[in-house]
Amino acid sequence: MALTFQGYVAGSLVRLCVFYSFMNVGTTYFDLVCTQTLLYYFPTKRGYLVALLKSMMGIGSSMTSILYQGFFPDRPSFFYFLMVYAIIFAVLNCIFMRLPKYQTTGYEDRKLTPEEKEERLKLKAPYLNQEPPMIRFYYGIGLIIVVIIFTTVASAVINYVGLKTHEEIRPFSIVVVILWAGFGLIMFPWQLFFGKKQGRQDHEDRDTRQEEPAYDDTKKPEQEITVAKEFDGYLEGAEELAEMESGSNEKPIETEVDFIAPQYQTSFWRNLLSINLWCLFWVFFIVMGTELMIMNNSTYIFQALSGHKQPDSLRYLLSVLNGVGSSAGRLSMSFFEVWIQSRPVEKRWPITVTLFVPTVSVLITVTLLLALPESVLPLPYVLGAVGNGFLGAILVLAPRTIYAKDNAKHYNFLFLATACSSIVINRFLYGEWYAQQAGDTVCLRRACVQPALIVCVCVCTTAFATNILLHFRYRSFCRKVLRERAILRGEITPEASEGNENENHGETFEEVNLDNGEAIAVNDTKSNKSANRGTGI
């Protein structure tokens, strides 16, 4: 890009598209490596982690825009700066980013013996039980909120006060550099000054609670997280474990469902044969595609709806509102997930309920764009940006919460939905119609964008119906897992559970067995009967 702007490489539509695709591939790998790897280290703090990582990705565009206006106005050297910045952190990621020991890769799955896999999986328990230093999360999220407020105020001042020269904008850029450097303090050893004594006491309390059962073979399910294994008659296995528990006066059995959400234990390739994954694909395809169409073409849509050209200040304002709204949406989704996880296991909501938020927001956004006057058009744009950020956080949390295996494959599959939607909805539905109506000029007529917006409203209603189907199917699965957890804890009898099973057998059979040869978490493993934690009912 820098060589193109400097004139050393002839610019063309094809070349710029290729350059842009290179950049998207690189940023996608950054996102995949950092986010998916770190989620393995904090399986019970996903909301905080996503709030920190994904929100930073959302406000990055706003911070970069202010840096460009203050330090690199009309200079191709800005691209060299971004290149050096990316190379430095890519090298650091290559050096330090590693999967935790309990997580095996596809290559390791083919090479390790079942005994070695089981030993590796036993190392997962500390990651579920231990509490990370929360001061790092609190500091990072607090700093992100400060950045969101600052970029909003800075954009308003720059655009509406009329700051033009880079000398006038440079003070804002200096503050951005300071705030950007402030994220490095997340690595600071805060425990040396805060909570060291309390952290030591909590560690001793956990040791006191866990040391005794660790040597009690009859209580092995309390300490270990084991791989789900097939057996005939999961209710009989649950009854056997319930008898073991009733024979002692110890605390109830603790399983993965007390820490993380109920998860399907089948592989990605098996899940391709289930309706749930394709429901997720369709929701992301429609909702994300519509939001990207609005976000990427906001200036042209506003001009067509208003009937006249918009000033450059509006374009800068929309860029900042997009970053701020997206970050706010990611924070909202992350905090909502934290709230869900803080509720009692039996009262947690399924993660699928969150899909209704971006679906409804995009429906309202498109409807308001068609109905509101020009003066308030930025309002639905902000709503769409919030929904876009909310869905961006769901893209990380939903597949990791619902599926236990092949997390990167599930994440990339849903990310593929957004890529396909940008081609189908943005390029063909919006782009072709706009080009046909506008010709070689900028279109200033509603007819250039109105048909595409109306079509988006119609297809988004199908996404809402898909949300309902997916939510009820996953909720049924969660209830199944929690019933078996209640059996293990002696809260209900297997006979009572079997009665409920017969009542709901038709509703839940496909959820539990996707294939005759392989059963998933609900009817697997004696030691890990409720091998997953419910996001709730």
Automatic annotation (TrEMBL):
Keywords: Membrane, Transmembrane, Transmembrane helix. This is Nodulin-like, putative. Coiled coil: none annotated. The chain crosses the membrane at residues 20-42, 49-71, 77-96, 137-160, 172-193, 275-296, 316-339, 351-372, 378-398, 410-429, 449-470. Residues 13-97 form the Nodulin-like domain. The keyword Glycosyltransferase does not apply. It is a multi-pass membrane protein. Pfam families: Nodulin-like (PF06813). It is found in: Membrane. Residues 201-220 are annotated as: Disordered. It comes from the Eukaryota. InterPro entries: MFS_trans_sf, Nodulin-like. GO terms for cellular component: membrane.
